[in-house]
């Protein structure tokens, strides 16, 4: 075997792979331009008169077969809108996985509610239903599940627990466009589904989000009002409750319309290349490739596999450096540590110097954020290997990436 690139050898991949941050990896072009030109020529770029926004919402609702879809300015805005919609507030607890984007937790904290972290599955890093049930208290109001990397959570178990305890379920599908759980599209299984259109997601509008529901009157609120200052637009200057302005512009919506038409082909391409990579590395001892089957359809926002640290001479951080040197940009896990070990939670860096909501008059128990509360999530950070994926990676390139990873893992095998 040739020396590893990190040791002075020749990189396994001698060309630049498609990049999710540029047109080399993103399919954005003439279709989007056409929609954008129509908006610009109309002179109407904003939320209120925008025809493209209404079309994008209708197209999304039709694609996901739901009654209501509301576009927002970001995925985090979508999640916060969902929290307002289900009327979460001070003193309430929301169960959330320990491994997710900070945006998931920000949505809870912005309502002065308290995130309660739940451990995850070691291999999928999705929320663990067995730990979920253990974390429910009399203050628990909702469950926020995250379909991480494009693989679905165990929704049957989660819905069963929610119904047993009279809890609402919000699905964070930022990384899971058209992911399926037992044939059902995620985001349509719980009470509310939330999506992101940030640059790296399955489709992108640069930034943006969408909230969907089949029940447009949860706890006395309509979804649209929760992203629009609580303002019923059919009335002149009225406001029903406190809510932010999370409007998506007609420019973003125009791009979204064109992107949505391509979503099925994007998913197909992502799957083909990811499965080629899995085929190349699945037989390496100490490696677990992403789960993927007909019942639980993985849509590969990212390609994340797991290593057994006991099988290799170096840790996942050094393995990531060596694999990156071979031409595959890879990270040592999605998160270097679970979210509860970041300062906004660990040190209560929230609203000024108040430490709200953790010392809120409505909160009776001190926040218990410390090492060890979700041990599997902490172990996952030492086992994960994470690659951002895109629709322009070919099957051959997926295979090349697999060979580069195999080269490094084989070299450092114990």
Offer a quick outline of the entry.
Helices cover 32% and strands 14% of the residues. The protein is built from eleven helices and 13 strands.
Which features does this protein show?
414 residues, seven-stranded mixed β-sheet, Aspartate Aminotransferase, domain 2, single chain, globular, Aspartate Aminotransferase, domain 1, three-stranded antiparallel β-sheet, 2 domains, alpha/beta, 14% strand
How do the helices and strands line up, and which of them pair or pack?
Elements: H1 30-42, H2 51-64, E1 68-72, H3 75-85, E2 93-97, H4 102-109, E3 114-118, H5 129-134, E4 140-146, H6 155-164, E5 168-172, E6 180-181, E7 184-185, E8 192-196, E9 209-213, H7 250-281, E10 287-288, E11 296-297, E12 302-307, H8 316-325, H9 343-346, H10 375-383, E13 384-388, H11 395-411
Parallel strand pairs: 2-3, 2-4, 4-5, 5-8
Antiparallel strand pairs: 1-9, 6-7, 6-11, 8-9, 10-12, 12-13
């Amino acid at each position: 075997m040739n020396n590893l690139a990190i040791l002075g050898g020749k990189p396994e991949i001698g060309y630049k792979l498609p990049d999710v941050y540029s047109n080399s990896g993103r399919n954005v072009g003439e279709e989007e331009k056409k929609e954008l030109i129509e908006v610009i020529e109309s002179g109407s770029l904003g939320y209120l008169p925008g025809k493209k926004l209404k079309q994008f919402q209708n197209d999304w609702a039709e694609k996901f077969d739901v009654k209501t879809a509301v576009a927002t300015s970001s995925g985090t805005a979508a999640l916060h809108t969902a929290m307002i919609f289900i009327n979460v507030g001070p003193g309430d607890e929301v169960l959330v996985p320990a491994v997710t984007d900070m945006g998931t937790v920000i949505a809870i904290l912005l309502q002065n509610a308290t995130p309660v972290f739940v451990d995850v599955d070691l291999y999928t890093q999705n929320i663990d239903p067995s730990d979920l049930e253990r974390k429910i208290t009399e203050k628990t109001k909702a469950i926020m599940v995250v379909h991480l990397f494009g693989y679905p959570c165990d929704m049957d178990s989660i819905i069963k627990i929610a119904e047993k305890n009279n809890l609402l379920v919000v699905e964070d599908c930022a990384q899971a466009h058209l992911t399926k759980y037992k044939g059902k599209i995620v985001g349509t299984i719980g009470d509310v589904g939330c999506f992101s259109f940030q640059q790296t997601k399955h489709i992108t509008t640069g930034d943006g989000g969408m909230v969907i529901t089949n029940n447009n009157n949860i706890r006395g609120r309509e979804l649209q009002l929760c992203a629009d200052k609580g303002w019923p637009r059919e009335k002149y200057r009225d406001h029903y409750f406190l809510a932010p302005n999370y409007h998506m512009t007609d420019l973003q919506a125009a791009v979204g319309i064109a992107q949505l038409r391509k979503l099925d082909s994007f998913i197909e391409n992502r799957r083909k290349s990811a499965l080629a990579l899995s085929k190349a590395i699945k037989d390496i001892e100490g490696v677990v490739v992403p789960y993927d089957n007909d019942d639980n359809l993985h849509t590969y926002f990212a390609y994340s596999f797991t290593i057994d640290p006991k099988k290799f001479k170096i840790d996942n951080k050094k393995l990531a450096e060596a694999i990156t040197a071979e031409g595959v940009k890879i990270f040592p896990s999605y998160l270097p540590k679970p979210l509860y070990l970041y300062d906004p939670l660990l040190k209560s860096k929230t609203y000024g110097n108040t430490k709200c909501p953790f010392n809120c008059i409505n909160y009776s128990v001190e926040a218990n954020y410390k090492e060890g509360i979700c041990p599997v999530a902490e172990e996952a950070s030492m086992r994960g290997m994470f690659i951002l994926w895109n629709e322009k990676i070919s099957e051959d390139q997926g295979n090349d990436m697999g060979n580069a990873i195999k080269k490094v893992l084989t070299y450092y095998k114990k």
